[in-house]
Amino acid sequence: MSTESEASEGSASNLSSYKIGDWLLNAHSNQLTKDGRSVELEYRLMNLLVFLLENRDRVLAKDEILRAVWPKKVVNDDSVAVAISQLRKALEDNPRAPTYIKTIPGVGYQFIHQDQIDIPVANSTVEASEPAKVVRPIKTYAAVAGLMMCLGMFAVLIYTRETAKPLAPMPKESPVSPTHNANLFTQAAGLTASPNAEDWRTAVKLLRQFIQENPTNAPAYLNLAETKIKLFADRFAETENYLELTALLNKALELDPDLARAHAWLAELIFVHDLNPAKAEKHFKLAVALAPRDDFVHYRYAHFLFIYKRFSEAQEQINISRGLNPLSFSGTNMVWIYLLQGNNELAERELERIQSTEEVDKYFKIAAQNVYYQMGNEQKVYENMQWFFKRAQFNEEKINVLNQAFSEGGLKAVYRWLLEHKETADVGQYTPPISWARYAIAVGDNKSAMNYLEQAFAKRQPHVECAVADPHYAPLKDEVKFKEFVARFGSSVTR
Asked: Which domains are delineated in the chain?
């Protein structure tokens, strides 16, 4: 970390222009130009690019880059990673198949496009349309391999409708053909997008084979982690599963520190398992900075923010997510924000807006139960709960018993029956022990509710963190044990 006082700024170079393949960099105007298009760089990014160019014969450590580009400023390694990512976007460089800037895992970065670079151009009069030199044949192989890999990433990843990003190129020493490797990943990605758990297991097998043949392919480790998260389901944060998943994600980030989704998933795991909101938020913020146009990372960060009742920031992230992916409007994110704010009327209005045009799903039904429960509309709560009875394939006898309980004693009687019979199916209140805690709260048995919450906490069950903000847990707020329980989650970092 650089800790020098703010006295003077680093200077890029006295040279005014650089020809970088098809790009012309004008260091005076901070502009990159190619084919008549211009990209204006921030002053710091221009300094960083020039520093990389003028030291292209060696690998630059992060500390050296910090001293050269951020002198006299208090910044950390994340500033370098974010700036490198922004430069790559400006240069249209793929970090998984880099043409210009290569990440050297655990060391730093190097400018690698030496076979096309003329440095310097004496002044800024070189035209952007000047013909670029011919790319050497070895680049053609990388481009073909990269294209083949891109095919494998057009599969929906966990909890998002976005397609995945292109894969890194295969290591040149791989004895297996590019087509074979691409097919392995393509098959795995397609199976991961399936709703069938057996397909996910097959995807895991294919991804393991792919990694054995391509041990330096960072997105493969990320995709394997995401597939396993789907398979682990509510058990993904249990200690043994957590250890495996974080190992895969850390390996992906070791190979490519700019994998935004790896940072987002690592943040989620750190938050739920380690109860370290400050460290989790660091990864969330880095994910957003690295992939500002990936709606997935904004969505995951929003969930974290509204757990800590940082509603304006959460809504900002949701609005960004919706702007990037209009399909996000069909989700229930805003329903939850309104609900956690105590604005039940707006939450109901958002439910009605979605329901008027969309086919409702599990997540809609969960949100609807919670909204109508807070509004005291037992009939609507039970109607939404009945959807889950069918989904869980309750037999006719059980459904009749529950209907009778509701008819005679309302929701409290239904929750009491579910609790007494230790029902394990998800009826819109998640799964045990969280669901049993919620039933116990509804029937007024706070002692049992705390016991079940402790069990959920011990196994790091997802949704246990929601007790911090979910109004369903309000009847416990004066309980000493509940206050101690909530305190374990700490307070989140504020901007």
From this structure: 17-135 (1.10.10.10), 139-320 (1.25.40.10), 393-487 (no CATH)
